């Protein structure tokens, strides 16, 4: 796989692995299956793994920590969402304690990259959180910090912050607005872009149908209308039925015989401002397929234009939640 630059000291193969599935919220993924997913990823050349303290209350981090014992060359990036109110006098302490817990879960001396985990906008706007992150870096608990954000405006705001190493955003065939300003400005600022939800929670694999049912403990069941967190994190903010219909459109616009999931990931990789795409997986074969996307030929400018204008006219009006 081609390597791309994420930030100072981290150049990694362009397809990484999202490890939310190894924690919770995606139905049952047994430890043995999680291990098989990680093994497949490593064997296929994946070296960047995205997790969060909140994924299964540390389960995903602990699995990755054990995996790093076997493969010290991997990069694990994690997230913290504990600071919820900018005026919380305990915010910095909570952030530090959370980072120490993540460090223990991951079994490392220093966390490669700690991202704010979609904290409320006022927290992101407050100097204190950035000072606290810089203090963690200066103390050697983390090597770098970044932010995972929900909206374009939050992303633009974070780009103003000194020391920001990376920005994690939702960017996929259904959510193309980052192309207008966010990706060009991140590239100008030299900040790496980490792309989550590349498959819109699996919709863009094309494998779902009207009768597809999700487990009770799968966010695609309990959060499909945003009951638990930002609806944008589930099916990219589309209703399931709109998502099914639009997936069929997308399949028709992106040419080629490769599975739609691969074409959807290849389309993302067609944007040079992207440092790494982190599809999640609940089965090892999904990882292998997603990595194979990197070997597909690039789409033409015409295909990019067609998909863009379709997205603007047909998809944008249907996206729910903050964007
Ligand atoms: N707030 C945040 O910072 C935040 C929020 C969301 C996600 N993330 C990160 O981003 C990562 C990726 O996002 P995501 O997992 O939410 O969405 P995603 O990558 O768009 O979708 C993952 C799901 O797509 C399906 N899938 C994956 N590869 C496939 C393939 N080749 N063929 C068929 N189906 C395939 C699987 O569904 P099935 O399980 O049904 O098979 C898988 O669970 C997460 O794991 C997490 O690390 C961060």
Would you give an account of this structure?
The chain is an alpha/beta fold. It has one domain (3-318): NADP-dependent oxidoreductase domain (TIM Barrel, Alpha-Beta Barrel). Helix content is 39%, strand content 14%. It has twelve helices and ten strands. The protein has helices spanning 31-43, 59-70, 91-106, 121-124, 127-139, 152-159, 182-189, 219-222, 240-253, 260-269, 284-292, 301-315, and strands at 3-7, 10-13, 17-18, 48-50, 75-80, 113-117, 145-148, 164-170, 192-196, 274-277. It has an eight-stranded parallel sheet with strand order 3-4-5-6-7-8-9-10. A two-stranded antiparallel sheet has the order 1-2. α3 (91-106) packs parallel to α5 (127-139). The two termini are 31 Å apart. NADP nicotinamide-adenine-dinucleotide phosphate is lined by residues 18-21, 26, 50, 79, 117-118, 148, 168, 196-202, 205, 207, 233, 261, 278-282, 286, 289-290.
